Amino acid sequence: MIRLLFLIFLSVIVMSCKEKSLYHQTVKKELSSGIRHDSLFLGFHFGMESQVFYNRCWELNKAGLAREGSQNTTVYQKITDLKYEAGFEFYPLFKDGKIQSMLGHVAYIGWSPWNKELWPDKLIEDLKILFEKWYGPGFFPIKSPGRGKAYVKVDGNRRIVLYHDKDQRVEFLFSDLSDPDDILKTANKN
Question: Which tens digits make up the pLDDT trace of 123-136?
Answer without folding.
Answer: 999 999 999 999 99
